[in-house]
Design a protein that fits this description.
The protein is an all-alpha fold. The chain has a domain of about 50 residues. Helix content is about 65%, strand content about 0%. The chain is built from two helices and no strands. Helix 1 packs antiparallel against helix 2. The longest helix is centred in the last third of the chain and has 25 residues. The N terminus is likely disordered.
Amino acid sequence: MNESPAKVAPAQGAVPSTDIANVRARLAQTEVATGRLRQAGSQEQYLQSYFLVEALETQLETLSRAHRPGRPG
């Protein structure tokens, strides 16, 4: 009856904290790449990277909101 957390399926709509950690890691890497591209003057690649950072920040915010206990809905 006393199952480990790894064996218990997450509730529907629950977001594993590993998803959040993965997005945070990808966001950090992309932010570094964006800074390098900006310094290098690669405008097109910089803009692509910048918008990826924006998308990852939005994804992280959505995942974080879904992971909070006691969220409405």
